[in-house]
Amino acid sequence: MKHFISFSVVGSLMTMLFLGIVNYTTTPQTVWFIYPCILLLLWPITLYFMSKKLYKQYAVICSAMVIAFLIIENLLYSPQHLWFIYAVYPIVWWPILMYLEEKAKSLNIALIGCASTIFYYSFINFIMSPQYPWAIYPAFLVIWWPLALYHAQKRTFVAFSVYASLHISIFFIIVNIVSSPSVIWAIYPIFLVLWWPLSMYFYVYKRRLYQRSTMTKDF
């Protein structure tokens, strides 16, 4: 493994140097070689941390690298709009979940993660672009985390289909109101979503009838 790591370090440095020279000699006005260099750096870093089984430290190092890259990229090319703050938050959750280990699978962590995500993006939405409530989209996605985890633990799949359909329906209604209140289009996807709990209910109902009939025949 040491030979593989040494080879990856030398190979990454040689390739990065070659790309830098090509970039400087052909298109010096555009610094593009940094993009493949990020991936090349991950090669020896991944080999080293995986060989040592340092998975938590690997998550921290990789997250820090990606965040640093995004910040530099943002400040170099579009400093007037700090877009990196949108991407940093989900990246930070990678090492956090790694350090939580088994606790990361708990409902409490899911609820905390869901609430903090909604608060984070709602705050950014309010500060940077209050003219449109785009925070409803990440909120819609992150609510699935505790919702799916709770019903998976309880094995209440029919109830999950009901609450999930309600969640989807509320989302479409809100989007309809804030985006195009003059056209009531939310009823179309809601109608399709309602088939999910309906089919789940009849599947469970027919399965119970079949089990009861089988038990009656056995007796």
TrEMBL record:
The keyword rRNA-binding does not apply. The chain crosses the membrane at residues 7-26, 32-51, 58-77, 83-100, 107-128, 134-150, 157-178, 184-205. It comes from the Bacteria. Keywords: Membrane, Transmembrane, Transmembrane helix. This is Uncharacterized protein. It comes from Lysinibacillus mangiferihumi.
